[in-house]
Amino acid sequence: MTTEQPEAGPTEWVNREEVGVGPWPGTWPTDPRYDPELLTNGDRRNVVDAYRYWRREAIVSDVDTRRHPFHVAIENFQHDHNIGTVVRTANAFAAAEVHIVGRRRWNRRGAMVTDRYQHLRHHEDVASLLDFATAGGLTVVAVDNTPGAEPVETAVLPRECLLLFGQEGPGLSEAAQTDSAKVVSIAQFGTTRSINAGVAAGIVMHAWIRQHADLAKAW
């Protein structure tokens, strides 16, 4: 008796041992967005195929034409190790900007080099972040599982907003909770008091995407 083998899935259709593409075959394109070094040596960066061989500045400029009007902020008063993941996710959803509140230094390893394509801004404290939001007409939406928080699963997120996340462990600072226009929480059903800050950021960003993004423009 023979056992029927399953059909190959999408990740098996091509060789995934090496990411990206090799040197450009044939005549080089004349478009100034292309990078001569990448055309010569190949492009192994973690970018979608539409941006293969493009200069970094050209990629950023192109994304700038279609970034979404939501910002993401995360407090970093205790060297939160989740910031890299937040930046990477914000880049995937084309957030307007990522704001780091508190300590300027953060571990970029989790960003997987996506910080090169994502606008970043530093604020010394929550007060300066809130001033930025007010000046930009952004509604501040804090994310924390606190009493009175609105479930993000049913909440209507403002289109022009700043999603504010606390750090792993202590959560949002008192100033962040007090001065935010809205506080939303993520439904949990297990034993843990909270979920990873990087995971929480991805959940809430995707909630915004589901409500406001034009999914026809996704890659």
From TrEMBL:
Location of region: Disordered: 1-22
Cross-referenced Gene3D superfamilies = 3.40.1280.10
Q: Which InterPro entries match?
A: Alpha/beta_knot_MTases, rRNA_Methyltransferase, SpoU_MeTrfase, tRNA_m1G_MTases_N
> What Enzyme Commission number(s) does the record list for this chain?
2.1.1.-
Looking up CDD domains in the UniProt record yields: SpoU-like
Record flagged with keyword ATP-binding: no
Give one GO molecular function term: methyltransferase activity
* Domain (tRNA/rRNA methyltransferase SpoU type) ranges: 70-206
Keywords from the UniProt entry:
Methyltransferase, Transferase
Which Pfam families would you find in this protein's record? SpoU_methylase (PF00588)
Alphabetically, which GO biological process terms does the record hold? methylation
Q: What is this protein called?
A: TrmH family RNA methyltransferase
Source organism: Amycolatopsis silviterrae
Upper taxonomic lineage: Bacteria, Bacillati, Actinomycetota, Actinomycetes, Pseudonocardiales
